[in-house]
Structure formats: structure tokens, C-alpha cells
Amino acid sequence: MDDALARAVRTAATRRAVVALIRGVDTQWWGGSIDDWHPDETLLSSPSSLEAYRKLLRQFKSGGTARAHAVMVYSDGSFASVMFGVKTRFEVAEFFKEASEIVRVRSTHAWLRA
Questions:
Q1: Is 71 exposed, middle or buried (0-12, 13-18, 19+ CB in 10 A)?
Q2: For residue 82, what pLDDT is reported?
Q3: Euclidean distance between CA atoms 3 and 63, whole angstroms
Q4: What pLDDT tens digit does each residue of the chain (114 aa) get?
Q5: 114, 95, 112, 93: which is closest to 104 by C-alpha?
Q6: pLDDT for 106
Q7: Residue 68 and residue 4: Cα distance in Å, rounded?
Q8: Domain extents for the chain?
Q9: How does DSSP assign 30-83, residue by residue?
Q10: Rounded distance between C-alpha atoms, residue 57 and residue 69, angstroms
Q11: Strand pairing of 68-73 and 26-33?
Q12: What are the phi and psi torsion angles at 112 (to 5°)?
């Protein structure tokens, strides 16, 4: 997470993003300009979720919101926690905690729901 955040904070405020890709117990971190990260649209759970993400992305990039969070649910059971505008470990941790709760509730893995 620290490396992803370090890359993200070097970008412009309206492009800064940290993404946590959550697959079961594994989490991969990415950070940088949101212009360089694209969700796998073929795996999104619904077309409406893609449109909601794009709307939030436009709002963020235009400066309409300084920080935002999108949790993307993929049809293969994985999730992406997309954190816009974060600049501290605390902000990332808060958004990741929120995403983890969503993953726990929506997961098909019984051990995650315990």
C-alpha cells in the first residue's frame, strides 16, 4: 500500500488514485494517475455500475469532489476499491476498511462472512 500511495501523491490532485484489487485473501495495490488505470469492464457485475463509476470519475477529474471512493464488484468474485484523491495512509485505511466491509457482506466465501 505504501508504494502505491507514494506513486499516487506524485500526481495532480484531480488525478491521484490508489486502487486495491481484492481477490479472496489477496490484495494487490496500485497507485498513480487515474488516467492510467482502467477497470476490466468485461468483468463488472452490471452496466449500471460502470456508468456510476464513470460519473464519479468525471466529477472527481473536474474538481467537483476532492476525495471519493468506488467499490467495483466483478463477476469473477473479485473487487476493486478505487480511492480518488487520497494523500495519507489514514485516508487509504478508512476507504479500505469501508471496502472490506462491502467485500465481507457480498462475498460468497463463508469464512469472510463469519
A1: buried
A2: 96
A3: 25
A4: 999 999 999 999 999 999 999 988 899 999 999 999 988 888 887 888 888 999 999 999 999 999 999 999 888 888 999 999 999 999 999 999 999 888 777 665 444 444
A5: 112
A6: 64
A7: 17
A8: 2-108
A9: EEEEGGG----GGGBS-HHHHHHHHHHHHHHHTTS-S-EEEEEEBTTS-EEEEE
A10: 10
A11: unpaired
A12: -80, -25
Task: Using the structure block, give the residue that is written with the C-alpha cell 485516508.
Answer: 91
Q: What is the C-alpha to C-alpha distance for residues 28 and 4, in angstroms, rounded to an integer?
A: 10
Phi, psi (deg, nearest 5) at residue 45: -70, -20
Write the CA distances from 40 to 61, 77, 78, integer angstroms.
20, 13, 11
Task: Return all residues near 31 (Cβ < 8 A) that are at least 6 apart.
Answer: 3, 4, 5, 6, 7, 8, 17, 18, 19
